[in-house]
Amino acid sequence: MASLAPIVPRRPRRIGFLLFDGVKALDYVGPAEVFVEANQAVGAYEVLLLSPTGDEVTTSLGGRVEVHAAADTIDALDTLVVPGSEQSPSTFARGAVLDAVAGLAARSSRVVSICSGAFVLAALGLLDGRPATTHWKFAADLARRYPAIDVQADRIFVRDGDVATSAGVAAGIDLALALVEDDHGADVARRVAQGLLVYLQRSGGQSQFSTPLRARAPQQSVVRRVTDLMESDPARACTVADLAREVNVSVRHLTRLFREELDTSPAEYLAELRFELARARLEAGSSVARTALEAGFSSAESLRRAFVARLGVSPSQYQRRFRSSVRRDERAPSAVDGPRGALGRAS
C-alpha cells in the first residue's frame, strides 16, 4: 500500500507595511488590523511593519513606532502596502522611501497604496498606464504630476492586476477587506468586518459611497452579478426586468433571490446605493441639485424627501453639519430624461 504524502501546511501570506516619518497612522493601522483580525478566522497572514532603515518612525500622531525589520532584509512579500501622509508628497515620496518601495515591490506578488501613498508608486512608474485612485483632495495633483496614470478620483479603491490603490483612511480598510475576500472568500471577510465592528463595507472600484455590510452577496451568485451592475452605475435608469434580462433570469426569480440572500428587494438595494452616493457627493462639496442628478434622483426635491425621511434633515442641512468647508458647484443640471420604472430614477 502506497504511503500518503505528508501534508505541508500552507505558509501564512506575508503582508508588509512600509512606514516612514510622518506616515498617517490610520492609513496603516486600519488595514493592518483587518489582516490581524483575519487570523482569528483562518490564521493566514503574517503582518510586518517595515521602514527604510529598520529604525522606528514618527507617525502623524507624533508618537514613535517600532518596526519589525528594514525593508532590504525582507526576501519576499505576498502584499506590499504603502500608506500615505498628510505631508506633501514631495516631502515623503522620495529618497529612502522610494528606494525601499522599489526594492520591496520587485519582491512582492501584489502592491497596494493607501491614500497619498499612490504618489510613491507613481514616482516609481508602477502606475503608468493603469487606472488608480487616491484621496479626492490629492487626485488633481496626482493627475497633473503623472499624466500617464488614469486617475479615477471618485473611486474608493481601484485594482488593476497585481496593483491596487485606495482613496485612503477608511477606504484602506475597504480595500483590505476586499483582499481578504479574494484570499479566503466573502464569509471570512464578513466575519473580519463584524469582528472589527465595521458597519459599512464599500464595494471595490466603485464610486466613493458605502453600502451596508449585510448587502454583499456571494461572489459567484446571480445576486452578486446584479449588485455589481448596480454599483457600477447607480444613477443609470433601469428596471428590475432590465437587470433580470442581463443575468438571464425572470423578474420573479431575481426578486426571490434578493430576498433570500440579502433580505431586501432589487429596488430597495438600489435606493440604498443612491442614498449613500448622495451622502458622499454632499460630503465632498457637490451642490444639492448636482448631487440629485449624479446619484440618480429625479430632482432636488426628491433628494430632499429622501434625506428628511431617513435622517430628519435636508440635504443642505446635512452638508452644513458634516462639512465645514464646502465646494460649491453652481452649474445647473440638465433635465433628467430616459425611461422610469421600478428601478428608474428615484422619485
TrEMBL record:
Which stretches of sequence are listed as region Disordered?
A: 322-347
- Molecular function in Gene Ontology: DNA-binding transcription factor activity; sequence-specific DNA binding
Q: Which Pfam families match?
A: DJ-1_PfpI, HTH_18
InterPro entries documented for this protein: Class_I_gatase-like, DJ-1/PfpI, Homeodomain-like_sf, HTH_AraC, INH-QAR
Superkingdom field: Bacteria
Q: What sequence ranges are listed for the domain HTH araC/xylS-type?
A: 224-321
- Enumerate the UniProt keywords alphabetically: Transcription, Transcription regulation
Keyword Transcription regulation part of the UniProt annotation: yes
Q: Which PANTHER family match?
A: ARAC-FAMILY TRANSCRIPTIONAL REGULATOR, HTH-TYPE TRANSCRIPTIONAL REGULATOR RV1931C
Q: What name does UniProt use for this protein?
A: GlxA family transcriptional regulator
State the organism of origin: Agromyces sp. G08B096
